[in-house]
Amino acid sequence: MNYKSFLNILFNNPLVKGASAHWWSQRLTAVFLIVFGGWFLISLTTFDSYQYAEMRSWAGYPLNFMMLILLGLSLTYHSCLGLDVIIEDYIHQASQRKSCLYLNKKIHLILSIILIVSLIVIYYGAI
Question: Where are the domains of the chain?
């Protein structure tokens, strides 16, 4: 087997189409989660008390609002990607795998919508 045919098999394999983008998306969202999660933990240490009114007013600041949305969206997208890998690896029937992948995407979409709507309600209620 020569070098070119090996590369042809490697890059034209239908099983790995899109796998590179999926892998990079997982790594990128992991980096985002480290950055936004670190910001969130550092922000939590600056509170005097963890009362509801103080937390709500903190989440109502524009920078905190945007950072919370980015943290939540990164978290849900990273979770969706991870569950995609688990479903693809451990569910062997094609029809069942397809329906589970579809359900996974829809549940994470609903979670993202709930996240955004709830943060918008907090943001406009805190002003």
Answer: 18-126
